[in-house]
């Protein structure tokens, strides 16, 4: 997943990519489940799931659902194949807000079931008495306010003519539309038959078996198949007025017809990124690699759903300046999708590895200077995140985090992303890049399609990298990196020489110097974000106006630069920027931008709070539940 924290990251993470068109097959043949073991590590118990997978676990899911746009719900069945321990009499599933109508075995015979007490974060356990069944069929419907699904009116789309639906499953939201064991450690294969209204196209994070759909009562049926076991949060769907354009032999983009030309032009380098990633850490194992660029309310930069990564339109800047962000979601095809954190306590195993891998892709394609700038921006973000987490002794600055009694969303800060990446860079420095790359490639091979924990990763390091070298392990301080708060002293800080000149220009301009127009024109997005971010948080109205006029900051089409500018403007209560702020907050719902701006406004007392309340009254209905729930904590 692309970064969702409260900090700007310029060019780096915003992400894309995923699934799509393949030759049509007659219909979805049942996927034969590919074996996916549970982690046997002592730290593999998932406190965010009611499931008891060692007793009874889901191995495969068959969905047969109709999208009811009028009722704003998915209606149909989920058939689950189970692997049972000897003597298992029941299976426990995760659900949240689901209306269960009936549960039967494969022969249609009713099974007893109970829905337990609901927890605000986890939902309620759905317990089914099996009576010997190894396959159960659940007839149900999702609730209109199910957090994973956002139903958009035509006015919320680019084309303004047809409705739209998309899902966001990470971390534990898919239980609001799929009754299964919603734990990243319980990998599942799946198929789906989705009935969408006529004139709308369904896409999912799986192989498309009927790209054009099949005519049925009520619309068209689209069939999908994922024959590789994936974490259930990676099951994703979108339905809308969608068209497709290839970008390469195995890459392409879906989006609305009215924005396709600009979108496809922006994403021209996707195929090159896949090739660069494969040269680093081995073959891409998911078939196609397409992306879906969504309407503006999508809450993240990108979500790495296999074969079909969902992406925010805020990356479409018109100058290809933000498309390097695709490297993050692409890297997830290895770190996160191929090898997945078994629990949300080890989110860093997904995101820290991915930030590191992303930067290596960027270095391969665009050179060391570009990669250094991105890593340096990440270092700044990391220190800001440590401060926000209570300083270097704050418990949430650990990589292996304690989320007991908390929503896993609470752990999705810059810490797992940037501290995780710094940890891997530190290992690379000590063992050398050649040895480290060989290890990583082997790591992805050894643990492909399996869950992983901190304990499991450390054991793998000892066996396949350290090989009994206790001195090397102590020098790196593996245990300290993973389990202790703060940032170890040996952390590698990749510094960009280009930023030295940028910082000097920012200092001179803040002191009253002329706007560095020639330099600005030559700078990359990373350098421009660094310049705006380096300006003092307290700046005169005259200097703010000079910057806005010289660089067109309030009218910026580049979302990263616009965000950095608005943060500076709010910090100074700069009234001329308020119209730009309002347009930005009501025109997109990316939590990375939205949440910190509301926090900044709220911190400005009566001035900012009145603006925040007014804007949020307009924008809240437009935001996805993920963004709403975060901003609700700020705007009282």
From TrEMBL:
Subcellular location as annotated: Cytoplasm
Residues of the signal peptide: 1-28
UniProt: a peptide binding residues: 168-170, 299-304, 590-592
Residues holding Zn(2+): 328, 332, 351
EC number(s) per entry: 3.4.11.2
GO biological process, one term: proteolysis
Entry GO CC: cytoplasm
Active site: 329 (proton acceptor), 417 (proton donor)
Keywords, comma-separated and alphabetical: Aminopeptidase, Cytoplasm, Hydrolase, Metal-binding, Metalloprotease, Protease, Signal, Zinc
Gene Ontology MF: a single term: metallopeptidase activity
Domain of life: Bacteria
Statement: the UniProt record of this protein carries the keyword Lipid metabolism: no
Domain (Peptidase M1 leukotriene A4 hydrolase/aminopeptidase C-terminal) ranges: 496-635
Family per record: Belongs to the peptidase M1 family.
Entry protein name: Aminopeptidase N
């Amino acid at each position: 997943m692309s970064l969702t924290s409260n900090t700007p990251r310029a060019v780096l993470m915003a992400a894309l990519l995923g699934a799509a068109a393949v030759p049509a097959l007659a219909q979805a043949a049942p996927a034969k489940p590919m074996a996916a073991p549970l982690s046997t590590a002592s730290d593999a118990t998932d406190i965010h799931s009611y499931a008891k997978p060692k007793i009874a676990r889901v191995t495969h899911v068959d969905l047969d659902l109709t999208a009811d746009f009028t009722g704003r719900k998915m209606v149909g069945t989920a058939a689950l194949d189970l692997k049972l321990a000897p003597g298992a009499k029941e299976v426990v599933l995760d659900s949240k807000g689901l209306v269960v109508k009936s549960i039967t075995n494969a022969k249609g015979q009713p099974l007893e079931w109970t829905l337990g007490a609901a927890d605000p974060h986890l939902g309620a356990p759905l317990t089914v008495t099996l009576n010997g069944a190894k396959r159960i069929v659940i007839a149900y419907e999702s609730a209109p306010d199910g957090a994973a699904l956002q139903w958009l009116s035509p006015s919320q789309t680019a084309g303004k003519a047809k409705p739209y639906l998309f899902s966001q499953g990470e971390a534990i939201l898919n239980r609001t539309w799929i009754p299964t064991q919603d734990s990243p450690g319980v990998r599942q294969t799946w198929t789906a038959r989705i009935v969408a209204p006529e004139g709308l196209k369904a896409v999912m994070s799986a192989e498309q078996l009927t790209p054009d759909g099949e005519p049925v009562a009520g619309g068209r049926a689209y069939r999908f198949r994922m024959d590789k076991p994936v974490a259930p949060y990676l099951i994703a769907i979108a339905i809308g007025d969608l068209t497709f354009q290839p970008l390469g032999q195995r890459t392409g983009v879906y989006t609305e017809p009215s924005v396709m030309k600009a979108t496809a032009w922006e994403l021209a380098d996707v195929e090159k990124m896949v090739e660069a990633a494969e040269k680093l850490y081995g073959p891409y194992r998911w078939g196609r690699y397409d992306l879906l660029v969504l309407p503006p309310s999508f809450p993240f930069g990108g979500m790495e759903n296999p074969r079909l990564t969902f992406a925010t339109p805020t990356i479409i800047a018109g100058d290809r300046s933000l498309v390097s962000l695709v490297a993050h979601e692409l890297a997830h095809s290895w770190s996160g999708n191929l090898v997945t954190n078994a629990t949300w306590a080890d989110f860093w195993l997904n995101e820290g590895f991915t930030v590191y891998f992303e930067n290596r892709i960027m270095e391969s394609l665009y050179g060391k200077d570009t990669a250094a700038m991105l890593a340096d921006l990440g270092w700044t973000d990391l220190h800001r995140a440590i401060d926000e987490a209570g300083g270097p002794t704050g418990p949430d600055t650990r990589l292996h985090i304690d989320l007991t009694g908390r929503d896993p969303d609470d752990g999705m800060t810059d810490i797992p992303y940037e501290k995780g990446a710094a940890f891997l860079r530190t290992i690379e420095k000590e063992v050398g890049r050649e040895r480290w790359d060989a290890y990583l490639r082997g790591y992805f091979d050894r643990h492909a399609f399996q869950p992983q924990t901190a304990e499991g990763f450390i054991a793998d390091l000892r066996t396949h990298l350290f090989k009994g070298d206790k001195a090397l392990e102590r020098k790196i301080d593996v245990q300290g990196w993973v389990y202790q708060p703060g940032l170890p002293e040996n952390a590698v800080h990749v510094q960009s020489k280009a930023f030295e000149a940028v910082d000097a220009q920012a200092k001179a301009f803040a002191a009253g110097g002329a706007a560095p127009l020639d330099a600005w024109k030559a700078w990359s997005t990373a350098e421009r974000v660094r310049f705006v971010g380096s300006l003092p948080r307290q700046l005169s109205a005259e200097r703010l106006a000079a910057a806005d006029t010289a660089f067109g900051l309030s009218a910026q089409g580049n979302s990263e630069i616009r965000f950095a500018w608005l943060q500076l403007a709010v910090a100074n209560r700069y009234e001329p920027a308020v119209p730009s702020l309002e347009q930005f907050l009501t025109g997109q719902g990316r939590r990375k931008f939205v949440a910190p701006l509301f926090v900044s406004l709220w911190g400005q007392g009566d001035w900012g709070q009145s603006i925040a309340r007014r804007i949020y009254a307009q924008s809240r209905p437009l935001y996805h539940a993920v963004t709403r729930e975060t901003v609700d904590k700020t705007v009282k």
